[in-house]
Amino acid sequence: MESRTALVEDLMERFPHVPREAVVKEDLLRGGIAFDDSALSGNEDGDVKPKSYFIFSFDHGTLPELGAAALRRPPEEIVLTGGPYELRRTVVSVRVNPASPWRVVGSELTLEGRPVADVELPPMPAYYRHTLANGKTVMETAPTIQWGYLIYLTVFRVCQYFGAKEECQYCDINHNWRQHKKAGRPYTGVKPVEDVLEALALIDRYDTGQVSKAYTLTGGSVTSTVDGLAEADFYGRYAQAIEARFPGRWIGKVVAQALPKADAQRFKDYGIAIYHPNYEVWDKRLFTLISPGKERYVGREEWHRRILDAAEVFGPRHVIPNFVAGVEMAKPHGFATIDEAIASTTEGLDWFMSRGITPRFTTWCPEPTTPLGQANPDGAPLEYHIRLLHAYRDALGRHGLRPPPGYGVAGAGNAVFSVSSFMDTLDPDEVTVEEAVPA
Ligand code: SF4
Q1: CA 210 – ligand 1 centroid, Å
Q2: In total, how many domains does the chain have?
Q3: Could you tell me the residue range of the domain that residue 224 belongs to?
Q4: Is 384 part of a structural domain of the chain?
Q5: Is residue 29 part of a domain?
Q6: N or C: which end of the chain has fewer CB within 10 A?
Q7: What distance in Å separates the CA atoms of residue 294 and residue 282, rounded to the nearest whole number?
Q8: Distance 104 CA to ligand 1 centre (A)
Q9: What local confidence, expressed as pLDDT, does residue 439 receive?
């Protein structure tokens, strides 16, 4: 069997326009990282920022299967530099896989035992050292990711798409909620608005370098109500409170279902600048099978139509729907070849980009408690991910679009977006905060 090193180096050679950093990062994201005890954090009491489990588990094992990493959390992210591939600064989200050939040992990343890069661990931010008046931590209430750029507000920790006939087949949000509860970890189902404001006040006070630039309001889909509110008002009330208390301090984003136009307008009126009505997978048949809840409650064509409606409300650059890169190749229903998968996804990119909408993606992590993770423990082929980066970059150029706003500076060595390397692969192009927040 081909070694992982040979696979990685072969792809670096065959796709010279994709930065080497992206090849390494995609393989770490799709396959996970093993951690030597020396590279784990001291949880909330140490000097390293621990993994917050901000929405999904993003691990290749359940907590009891992670060994020491379940007791002493791994870092939220790592930064890679140098090594034989002379990597520029690369921020990678941590997905734990004790069986991975990639291993962090002390301050080194190794692949099959060979050193590949220097590893910098994220320092514990000052605002994580403070608690809310009720004793809750900032890490649980308002964790930051992307090396501190994004405050991730999963204000509703479960999804009302429930069970095999509704849950997206790659998603472990509901399982993750159960496992943290079972482990006795603090994990609030619905975060009170006041808690969120208090945590943000601590971030605002102690993030003296103003590293945090954006917040994302997100959580599961709301098909009925939460706290008596339907989805737009439930998520919108947080934005309204945040913007009233900290006007313009951060770029406000929301990840929610593709809602009718009047609801998109409500999000905007509440102070949201960027809307992510995630379409997950482009192909019609796969959408129905992989996101059955979205098909059932909204339907694919209506979902896409609402994305266009939202573009009229926010402006097309401020509607950034996500897809989960890799699930279109997942057995048993996915495409059998990389060519077919790339062709389908490119068709979707062209459909959106020709209308000025810039999708973005997250690299699929095959979590073991999901149907697709169980059937595909190794995820999608690395070559698929590399060719997708290439296809995305080409599509952006073909449609004369720039990197989407709200993600910091693009380009290898600059990018902070940690759950995909699409920003590492694009040319440097600083999208300013001013552009991200429309007047
Ligand atoms: S809509 Fe799908 S991806 Fe989003 S939380 Fe619900 S099940 Fe998960």
Answers
A1: 31
A2: 3
A3: 133-276
A4: yes
A5: yes
A6: C
A7: 13
A8: 31
A9: 44
User: What mean pLDDT, rounded, does the chain reach?
Assistant: 94
Q: Pocket of ligand 1, candidates 154, 166, 171, 364: which has the most ligand atoms within 8 Å of its Cβ, to mutate? A: 171
Q: Residue 188 — φ and ψ, nearest 5°?
A: -80, 125
Position 126 in a domain: no
- Other residues' Cβ atoms within 10 Å of the Cβ of residue 228: 7
192 and 253: one domain?
Answer: yes
Average the pLDDT over 335-363 and give the result: 98
Tokens matching residue 314 = 């926010």
What are the residue ranges of helices labelled H in 183-318? 193-206, 231-245, 261-270, 284-290, 292-297, 300-314
Token representation of residue 189: 């189902």
- Check residue 253 and report its DSSP letter: E
Question: Comparing 10-24, 174-188, 213-227, which segment has the lowest mean pLDDT?
Answer: 174-188
pLDDT mean over 36-44: 84
Question: Does the residue 21 lie in any domain?
Answer: yes
Q: Nearest-CA neighbor of 179 among 45, 74, 59?
A: 59
DSSP character string of 267-280: HHHHT--EEE---B
- Ligand 1 within 6 A of CB of 168: yes
User: Which tokens hold the place of 119?
Assistant: 């590893």
Q: Are residues 97 and 173 located together in one domain of the fold?
A: no
CB 276 within 8 A of CB 320: yes
How would residue 435 be classed by pLDDT, with cut points 50, 70 and 90?
low
